[in-house]
Amino acid sequence: MKEVQKEIVPIVNEDLFIVLDHPDADFDYSVHYHPEYEITLVMNTYGERIVGDSVEPFKDIDLVMIGPNIAHKWCGEVVKGNHVITIQFSEQFFDLPILNKRLFAPIKKLLVDARCGVCFPQDVLLKMKDRIIDLTHMQGFQTVLVFLSLLYELAISDRYTLISNRYDTKETVMTTKSRRIAKVCEYIEEHYSDTVGLTEVAALIGMSGSAFSHFFKSKTNSTFIDYLNNLRIAKACQLLTETNQTVAEICYNCGFNNMSNFIRMFKKKKLYTPNEYRNFMSQILLKY
Fold first, then answer.
1. Of the residues 31, 66, 85, 122, which has the fewest C-beta atoms closer than 10 A?
2. pLDDT higher than threshold 90 for residue 249
3. Is 132 exposed, middle or buried (0-12, 13-18, 19+ CB in 10 A)?
């Protein structure tokens, strides 16, 4: 089994956050993770970005926020003039009492979303770029104000989730505040390799199929079918990376009953075929 490296981040208890400024980055760090939150701005280069089970191309400029213990790496080309700025802060930031105040609700939601990794569109990152660069030249209390302002602007901006395999029942309960959704998600995780029908899952919580569809979408922002398929693809990514099972074995072990459908859906979600994904991940993951 291949593993990713745990990074020791140079942050101490007295730090609210740290900023790492890397002009002309070498992009030679292996896939890694750490318990801290991270905001990464990558400029003036191109390549592929890995965040959890997400592998996406990026070009010119990229802005991503990552929650605790998510494996990540930017496979950027070493282009002269490239620039990487990373802001890191402790996961304990989430538990600060001030975040329970109404004005901080958007920031708290952003921190929850970041546990699946979030990427920001072009208009947002162009707006945030100069603020993040300015932060590298500041000192003192002003940096706190800029940092909190940056978090708030990101919190109220458009963003999309990168990772499709962070189906944690505890987090589901926390974000949806629904034990019925938690019960459904637990059942799906236990039976994703079998035939799982909407009607049978709806019956678990005493709902009709139609009522359950609306309820599930309103609580998770995902249809039941999309949620199930995303989970199955995520499990396939894990098996492709961590085992020697054939693509056919993985297909059926993850609940797909048709190879061509599995490959088509996998490529749609991951931009790679299963074999291409396995080959790519084997090249960049290092064993420690």
1. 122
2. yes
3. buried
139: amino acid identity, one letter: Q
pLDDT score, position 169: 46
pLDDT on residue 221: 77
**Cα–Cα nearest to 43, from 18, 63, 15:** 63
| Beta strand spans in 9-82 (E) | 18-23, 32-33, 37-51, 54-66, 72-76
To the nearest 10°, report the CA torsion of 233, 234, 240, 243.
Answer: -130
Dist CA 100 CA 104 (whole Å): 7
C-alpha triplet 173, 177, 183: angle, nearest 5°: 50
By C-alpha distance, which of 38, 33, 86 is closest to 66? Answer: 38
* Distance in angstroms (rounded) separating the CA atoms of residues 200 and 228: 14
Rounded CA-CA distance 43/59 in Å is 8
Query: Tell me: the pLDDT tens digits for 55-110?
Result: 889 999 999 999 988 889 998 888 889 999 999 999 888 888 888 899 999 999 99
Q: Do residues 72 and 51 lie in contact, with contact meaning Cβ atoms separated by under 8 Å?
A: yes
